[in-house]
Structure formats: structure tokens, C-alpha cells
């Protein structure tokens, strides 16, 4: 059985050169842009809404991606939208939120419905972002619930793109060299 499955006739769509580890599970209405990577034990379920992942974005091991259904009070529900050049650390939980471009989501973080994380943000490991919050661009946030800690340095902003580039190289290696035996 493949770990990439259709649901109600909708099958995940992968761009060019996308790496999906064979232990990851992708179900339903999911689109993934070119050169992105999905690492071991990621679970992404596009059942009651859609999941869009941009280009050169990495979703690291054990992360969980899900969405919230549409209803009369909230006609769009909460899809999950992740931009370009995003690094999602190990075991993060992203639920019905929007993550813009060049963001680092620290490992073990939890981001809840209706949140918008603007471009060029770092979220410290183990943070929780409560529902419907917007995290403005250019800052480090951390804690439970997250607080704005300080502006990012120029080096940290540069690192956001570097981190994504590193993972593009890493996934290219995996595309050519990992073997399921
Ligand atoms: C937040 C982070 C970027 C460090 O930022 P920093 O400004 O260099 O922070 P420092 O290490 O100088 O610590 C400053 C304070 O924040 C605290 N702190 C550090 N990381 C924290 C976190 N994730 N959550 C809460 N508090 C944190 C420190 O304990 C310290 O507190 P103190 O002043 O009371 O001693 C880093 O700890 C982190 O969480 N990085 C994410 C890494 C990751 O998950 N990468 C993805 C996988 S590759």
C-alpha cells in the first residue's frame, strides 16, 4: 500500500523533484511545490479541507499537518497553507494555519487554527501559537503561549533561506541514495 493515498477521489499532487519518505503518510487534497521534502513519519491529512505546501519547503520528521472543516459560521474552514522556503522542525504540529515564506518553525511547536505567521519569522522550539494570532514579520517568537522575543538579526534572516537550501540539497541526496529494502 502506498503512503500517498487519495480520499474521496482527490489525490495528493507533487511538484517536480519532491522527496516524500516512504514512511510519511499523505492523504487527500494536498499540493506540494517543486523541490520540497517530506521526511520520515510525517502525517498530512487533507480530508475536510486542503493543504498547500510551497516550493523548497521541508517538513521534518514526525510532524503532523491537518485542517478544519468548513461550516456555516466559518465557510472556508481552516485550510493549511505553507509558503516557500519554510523549514518545519521535527515533530511540529501545524493545524489549519497559514505560514508565509522563509519561516523556521522550531521543533515540537504547535500552531493552531487561524494563525498567520508572516514571512521571515523564527518560532523557538517547543512554542505554542494560540488560535487566530498573527505573528508579524521579522521577529523571533517563543514560549507557551508565544511572545515576541526580539527582532531577527540580518544573519538569522539570511539563515532562513540557507536552511531551506540545505534541505533541498539533502533531499536531492535522498532522492538518489535512499533505498527501501
Ligand atoms: C530560540 C532560539 C532560536 C535561540 O534564540 P536566542 O536568542 O539565541 O536565545 P538564547 O539561547 O540566547 O536564550 C535566551 C533565553 O531564551 C530561552 N530560550 C531559548 N530557546 C527557547 C525556546 N525555544 N523556548 C523558550 N525559551 C527559550 C533561554 O533559556 C534563555 O532564557 P534566560 O534568558 O532566562 O536564560 C533556539 O533556542 C531555538 O529554539 N531554535 C529552534 C531550533 C529548531 O527547532 N530548528 C528546527 C529543526 S532543524
UniProtKB/TrEMBL annotation:
Species this chain originates from: Vibrio ruber (strain DSM 16370 / JCM 11486 / BCRC 17186 / CECT 7878 / LMG 23124 / VR1)
Any Pfam family: Hexapep
The keyword Ribonucleoprotein is annotated on this UniProt entry: no
Annotated protein name in UniProt: UDP-3-O-[3-hydroxymyristoyl] glucosamine N-acyltransferase
Keyword Transferase part of the UniProt annotation: yes
Keywords of this entry: Acyltransferase, Transferase
One MF annotation (Gene Ontology) recorded for this entry: acyltransferase activity
